[in-house]
Here is the input.
Amino acid sequence: MFLAVDAGGTSTRAVLIDTLGRAYGYGRAGGGNPTATGIGPAAEAIGYAAERAMGDLTGSGQPALALIAMAGEKTAAFREQVVGRLAGLGLSEVVLDPDLLGMFHSGTPARDGYALIAGTGAVAARIRGGRLDRVVGGKGWLLGDAGSGFWIGHAVARAVVASLDGQGQRTVLTGLVLEKLGIEADPGTLAGRAEALRQLVSAVYARPPVSLAELAPLAFEVHDDRVARAILLDASAALADLLSAVRAPDLAGPVVVGGSILVRGMLAAPADLQVELVPIAAGHPVIPVSDGLVGAAVLVLRRAGGNVDDPLFHRIRAEITRLSTSSA
Amino acid sequence: MFLAVDAGGTSTRAVLIDTLGRAYGYGRAGGGNPTATGIGPAAEAIGYAAERAMGDLTGSGQPALALIAMAGEKTAAFREQVVGRLAGLGLSEVVLDPDLLGMFHSGTPARDGYALIAGTGAVAARIRGGRLDRVVGGKGWLLGDAGSGFWIGHAVARAVVASLDGQGQRTVLTGLVLEKLGIEADPGTLAGRAEALRQLVSAVYARPPVSLAELAPLAFEVHDDRVARAILLDASAALADLLSAVRAPDLAGPVVVGGSILVRGMLAAPADLQVELVPIAAGHPVIPVSDGLVGAAVLVLRRAGGNVDDPLFHRIRAEITRLSTSSA
Here is the structure.
């Protein structure tokens, strides 16, 4: 028996599985990324999800090895806290792996291929021999992540400001953004436009910059609007560039895509707005995944010496889908 | 006798003048903008500059009216503090005017024309009949200000990150940025590149985002570098757009330009990198100014009922230049 955990910025998932891919328990908790939520709360979220997944297991069924797939730096302080928390549950060995590997293996048991993730941030990876061979992007909202949720939301906010300021094109995004931020001024009038602009500027600076990512879904909502469309086309091109940057001519393999911008946004958008993944995938499948839990399970079984082939991979995926759906 | 103050984000200047444009004292202090430095320190800086300008004046020479040219919102709390501080110096009437009018009238006594300012932020104004008729831009680093110091510095940082990440072109900006941020890793090696990137990302997120504006001068320093050149061309085009946005076909007049990016950067750059102001100025002069103090003096004399014609304007300017140079 093994414990696999996918610790994300907004939620954490854990599953208890055996070497045959049977799942015995599933748990869910809040954000488990120490950079996003702090070391203490992140370790506690992981502990809580693990507890739920393990239920009232005792004795010989007790897992010894836990694997946590997570983004960002794995500091000694965080490692200590999470190891301590899981030791209290009887887990004597804890391994931390990159979330990019968890995402990739949530889509495929292949050892070579690519992952492209665009949620609040954006990052691409080349996986070779089951390891991260090259990673590009993922530098956060201020330093990159073109095509990410922050990037799109930021562009939406700037477009609305420019429009209210009389410097940019009119866009239906204006009404949506003002409504989303709870601004009641009527920009239909000249004075209302100035007032809406003043309130919008205040509202944006009063929030953490990265929360502009919350405006990204509005662009998808009105993708026929010229301004929204231009933003999404730019984002799509930026994400294609990001994936190209990790492409190696000698390495084929599937392209696993994850993150709300890609999975719920781009892949659900009209074809001309979608990221051009086909030339990069070069005949291999493009596989969307919703999170990294299946991959974390693949990683923990491999870490324990197991051989995760196609049938076992599909079993794991089916089991986790069953448990996570019934617990939702 | 009147007191004119130009209260900027990083420094404050004050001058004591009479209706004939003769200047009797000059004072300088730290940042006097309440948004940038806080209400208390800003009011104190203005008070200190005023004190220095007034020297040991007593009796009939005592000015009654003070005018402060300043950016941003003039809140009741700030007004109260600054009025109190200046009342202590015998100034019974205090008027707050927009810094854009101070900048404009530092370049011309004309009542119609345009101002374009690009320092950390960027803003353009149309002045009609001595009043602000239209203002575009000035929404701060997160929401606009294309072509501003922040915007250029941000582009520089992103270009260096992309280059170190192997996603962007190589640029001499990389060495300059790493040196400026005190990062010693040698990006000449592959491992050094990753380490420099890691340190750069940490350094940028550890500072206030707006401080990226400090990287803008690096782009001007190496304007022959292809990456730097592309950033400056984009900035130049954005500033031209900003000025176009306030242009009215029926209003000619000079274009007064201020702020370090325009005055020390663009106007000192090779012709092809300069902001295309000529088509907008339409035969009228383009006038660079270093700050808004001359304009604050023009505004206070006009407020007192004076007629500031060309000869008086030139007198004021010469007097302030004389005093500020000798006190520097």
